[in-house]
Design goal:
Length: about 300
Amino acid sequence: MSVAKIVLFYVFTPLSDPEAVRLWQHALAERHGLTGRVIVSSQGINATLGGDVADLKQHVKVTKSYAPFHGADFKWSTGTGDDFPRLSVKVRDELVTFNAPDDIVVTDQGVQGGGQHLKPGALHRLVDARGDDVVFFDGRNAMEAEIGRFRDAVVPQTDTTRDFLAELDSGKYDHLKDRAVVTYCTGGIRCEVLSVLMKNRGFTEVYQLDGGIVRYGESFGDAGLWDGSLYVFDNRMHMEFGEGVESLGTCVECGVSTPLFVNCANEVCRAQFLRCEECTAAGRHPSCGACEPATV
Ligand SMILES: [Zn+2]
Ligand SMILES: [Zn+2]
């Protein structure tokens, strides 16, 4: 019987020949009929792949046999078998595009100078010990946080990861520079870079959630400090950590809780906004808030 899964992994490690790694990863994934997205750079590898669990396990096994990737942390979740449109394996300048390649120093020990990694249990111990002195800092795009986030988290105004530098340099978050700041993102990779940028800009006590929201959800489900749905970049669009979990987002038309983003009907806008299944089926509110008055 075929069981569809999705696997996420990343490794920050110096790669002298990213193109060779790209060719190898592409051939390997193709041979196993996998789909998804793999980025390779001189800083390492970042992959999200979907397919049959037996095929994914073969891919993982061979990937781990390459010494620089031996220590990779593989995160598994349930897929549908149709989670990605195709296979894309690319070489980029940065593993995650913060447009800050000069801030990031990668050795075979990983990214240098980042925030202290906290596993989910250690995060709870920190919060128990320090209480309100701990502040969560969302390392994702603001849209992702609309449907789920850590309790009382600071959510920077970012459309893409490239917006973080300007946000940090704006002074808006300077009052957090002496607080215990915990950055978090989907699987941890964005925080590896973001926490360096923050420390380089005077944030004195920076932690990063090890394994991201995915690992946290596996440990604490919906019973911890996480609220709502997790936005994911595949056809699933969102996932929850328990039965009956409600998204923090609400339908722009009727106000019910929904984790479902749709694209604005205006072809030149295509902004994503929240609209529930029922309103979508009924054809209500085709355009986003910004376009609605002009086009309807
Ligand atoms: Zn609705
Ligand atoms: Zn629009």
